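Changelog note: in this version the structure field was regenerated for every chain. One regenerated record is shown below for reference.
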Amino acid sequence: MYGMKMTMHIDEVLLERVIAAYDFESKTEAVDMALREMDRKVRYREFVKNGLGFTPEELGDAVEPGYDPKALRVAETPKDYGC
């Protein structure tokens, strides 16, 4: 499953906190997930920067003409969060 074995200098306290917080079974799993999360963030920023590649007209055509989000909000029953 994993590509290579290597020696790394990692803050042990930080690594143990992450393992405990996310219930990882190994240090390898924690490092793998951290790398995947960093990669996901980079790809997300690129996606936001570049968009879907559609023109504003194409995006407008993708929405139902009668769709009214304000009308949907008015129809919802407000929640009381005790604030």
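Spot check on this record: The chain has four helices and no strands. Residues 12-74 form one domain.
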